[in-house]
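Example 9 (inverse folding). The structure is encoded as follows.
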């Protein structure tokens, strides 16, 4: 089985209305649809662009205001997923639940369903500056093209959580990210490669580019999309099916062949998933 995926290097820029945000989002989805894409991934925190709309005094909105756009956000991406017959991983959006803020990845199915995964590991900045709460569980999601997981940015830096996703049957990890400098970017990028090797899964990664001069903690972004494979003979030697140009506004697209994953898990040069020493350490099932 094959599935075609696209990852959006989303260009953050100041806007003045939700309609501008909607038009930019549809531009990327429409473009991906022209490539025959079945799954499109947006970055973490890309909806912070809505904070640049500002209030009546011209001041940027705060993170506490962002959940007020949740209904519009969900309606927009539900309609776009249906219109373009595509699975849309709508990056992350900040939602409020029981008085707490969560950084939540959303999967919009073409049939109108919405699946959600809270970010599990929260960075110090998210805690100290934005008072984010961590998610308390991992889900995997069935689609007509296989089982996937959504792990956001910092999550991919923790081997255990990706082991759990693979143990639950996920073959593709979608990783929306948002990093403001090279250090953060390479932490996420290098660990994405490690998780693909360890678990013999695909990782689809992307991040924000551009800047929001009026929005705290979103003034700088350093991003690049990549579609990452295990490192074995059926795949590219560097483990990269496609990657974007750093900090450019663009989309990357590639086909993921799930049969190749099953093949290397059984008969690869190395069989890292099968060769786990679960007599010595935890088996994540």
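The amino acid assigned to each position is listed next.
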């Amino acid at each position: 089985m094959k599935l075609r995926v696209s990852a959006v290097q989303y260009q953050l820029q100041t806007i003045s209305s939700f309609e501008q945000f909607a038009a930019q989002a549809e531009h990327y989805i429409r473009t991906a649809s022209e490539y025959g894409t079945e799954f499109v991934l947006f970055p973490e925190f890309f909806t912070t662009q809505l904070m640049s709309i500002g209030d009546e005094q011209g001041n940027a909105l705060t993170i506490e205001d962002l959940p007020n756009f949740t209904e519009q956000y969900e309606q927009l991406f539900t309609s776009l997923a249906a219109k373009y017959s595509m699975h849309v991983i709508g990056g992350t959006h900040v939602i409020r639940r029981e008085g707490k803020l969560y950084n939540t990845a959303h999967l919009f199915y073409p049939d109108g369903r919405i699946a959600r995964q809270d970010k599990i590991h929260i960075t110090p900045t998210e805690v100290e500056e934005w008072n984010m709460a961590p998610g308390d569980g991992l889900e995997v999601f069935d689609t007509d093209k296989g089982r996937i997981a959504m792990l956001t940015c910092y999550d991919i830096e923790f081997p255990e959580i990706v082991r759990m996703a693979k143990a639950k049957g996920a073959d593709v990890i979608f990783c929306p990210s948002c990093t403001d400098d090279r250090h953060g970017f390479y932490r996420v990028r290098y660990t994405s490669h490690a998780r693909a090797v360890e678990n013999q899964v695909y990782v689809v990664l992307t991040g924000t580019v551009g800047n929001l001069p009026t929005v705290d903690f979103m003034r700088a972004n350093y991003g690049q999309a990549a579609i990452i494979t295990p490192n074995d003979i059926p795949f590219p030697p560097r483990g990269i099916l496609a990657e974007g140009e750093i900090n450019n506004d663009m989309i990357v697209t590639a086909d993921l062949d799930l049969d190749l994953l099953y093949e290397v898990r059984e008969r690869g040069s190395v069989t890292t998933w099968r060769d786990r020493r679960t007599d010595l350490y935890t088996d994540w099932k």
